[in-house]
Design a protein that fits this description.
Elements: E1 10-14, H1 20-29, E2 34-39, E3 51-55, H2 61-71, E4 75-80, H3 90-111, E5 112-123, H4 128-138, E6 139-145, E7 156-164
Parallel strand pairs: 1-2, 1-4, 2-3, 4-5
Antiparallel strand pairs: 5-7, 6-7
Helix pairs in contact: 3-4
Length: 167
């Protein structure tokens, strides 16, 4: 996940509960980097001083301002593992999932340095192709993957978008 040869690496994770991605990011950036995680659910504190955990709605403007303040500059990577609480109504759940994807894309455009990277959880649905088109308009390279650990029958995929275009 290293995005450049620079020593300092800054990662932001949206939808960070239960904390696995934050721990991996913290290890990857080391003490010279910074990791910021945010989720609706509070995460247990981590011992690393370079990890900042926030509780709140990542789509809320006040929380976005907090993240920008903690960042102090552009991020190298934005990870989004956000997923909606499922209602059981397919159309509602798909729409909310796509809303979260688009919120992560807005974050990426405003938080990432030019050339930065977005790793985004995307649920396949009616708007999947449109979201991929939006990502391709924003990044130079967009690849999709489905981890082997994904439950059979799940619509979950991940998109790895690199090379944020100057917006």
């Amino acid at each position: 996940m290293c995005t450049s040869a620079r020593t300092l690496s800054i990662r932001v994770e949206l939808g960070s509960w239960p904390g696995g991605w934050v721990q991996v990011a913290a290890e990857l950036v080391g003490n010279a980097g910074k990791v910021i995680g945010i989720d609706l659910v509070a995460l247990d504190p981590l011992p690393q001083a370079h990890v900042v955990l926030l509780q709140g709605d990542a789509t809320d403007a006040a929380q976005q301002d907090k993240i920008r303040a903690v960042l102090g500059g552009p991020a190298d990577v934005v990870l989004s593992d956000m997923a909606p609480k499922l209602s059981g109504i397919k159309e509602v759940d798909e729409a909310r999932a796509m809303e979260l994807c688009r919120a992560a894309l807005v974050y990426a455009r405003t938080l990432l340095r030019p050339g930065g990277t977005l790793l985004l959880k995307v649920f396949m649905g009616a708007e999947h192709k449109q979201v991929l088109a939006e990502l391709r308009a924003t990044f130079t390279t967009v690849k999709t993957t489905r981890p082997e650990a994904t439950r059979k029958g799940s619509a979950e995929t991940y998109v790895f978008a690199t090379g944020l275009k100057h917006t």
